[in-house]
Amino acid sequence: MEKEKIIAVQNLTKKFGDFTAVKNISFDVYKGEIFGFLGANGAGKTTAMKMLIGISNPTSGKATVAGFDVKENSEMVKKNIGYMSQKFSLYDDLTIKENIQFFGGIYGLSRTEIKSKTESLVKELQLETIINSLVGSLPLGWKQKLSFSVALLHEPKIVFLDEPTGGVDPITRRQFWEMIYSQAYKGTTIFVTTHYMDEAEYCDRVSIMVDGKIEALDTPKNLKKHFKVDSMNEVFLKLARNVE
């Protein structure tokens, strides 16, 4: 059975004046896949992601996300995706309950849906006793889990995670990846950027960007085999040296 494409990118390019941040990249992502989008700071991955979530227009090339063209139909792209930024997107000066209700409203859920989703989310994360606490008072790991859950409130087809585990401890990182696995198992596509190369091992496939281009794209197992190394960190180092 042919896999369903949820993201299709052809020759996508982004220029800022004379500088080309993203250079003619092409790739597909499939339904229910955990797709790792890797690269060092400045490699172009955040710029590429901004085009895919409909907040930055490509200079040239084409991309569809959840069946919608990112340039022609960016509003429909936004309605069909979830997004969790590096800073977790939540409002520190609102309570847990208020954050859930606020984002539920932004995502266009009805009052009944927001009430139901709030109850199930709080129960799932075991936050019943602190539902009226300010988000700013939560430990980083709890903010991370709540932010991920809020990005899924409207049951999007795809969720984009931009460096979601930055600054949290290894145990919390592992717990967060268990949440990612659980969601992918339900059929949600996960598009994740990270600079932690050990996290690349958790992805179904990874692409590695170097200097605005995708220099490798495959399963972690195949990439390690191709480069004759034992870890994704070594794959990345070899690629970076080859491009230099």
Question: How would you sum up this structure, described in words?
Answer:
It is found in: Membrane. Residues 7-236 form the ABC transporter domain. This protein is α/β, with parallel strands linked by helices and 244 residues long. The chain is 37% helix and 27% strand. It is built from nine helices and ten strands. A six-stranded mixed beta sheet has the order 6-7-8-3-9-10, sandwiched between helices. A four-stranded antiparallel beta sheet has the order 2-1-4-5. A hairpin with a 2-residue loop joins strand 9 (205-210) and strand 10. The longest helix has 16 residues, at 170-185. The protein is globular and about 55 Å long.
Observed structural traits:
single chain; four-stranded antiparallel beta sheet; 27% strand; 244 residues; alpha/beta
How would you summarize what this structure contains?
The chain is α/β, with parallel strands linked by helices and 244 residues long. The protein has nine helices and ten strands. The mean pLDDT is 89.
Strand content: 25-35%
How many strand units? 10
Characterize the largest beta sheet: strand count, sense, and whether it forms a barrel.
Answer: 6 strands, mixed
Distance between the termini: 41 Å
Which term fits the overall shape?
globular
Helix/strand-derived category reads alpha/beta
Query: Given the structure, what is the number of helices?
Result: 9
Q: Summarize the helix and strand pattern as letters.
A: EEEHEEHEHHHEHEHEEHH
* Gyration radius, in Å: 18 Å
Average residue pLDDT: 89
**Helix fraction?**
25-40%
State the low-pLDDT regions, or none.
none
Q: Strand order, biggest sheet?
A: 6-7-8-3-9-10
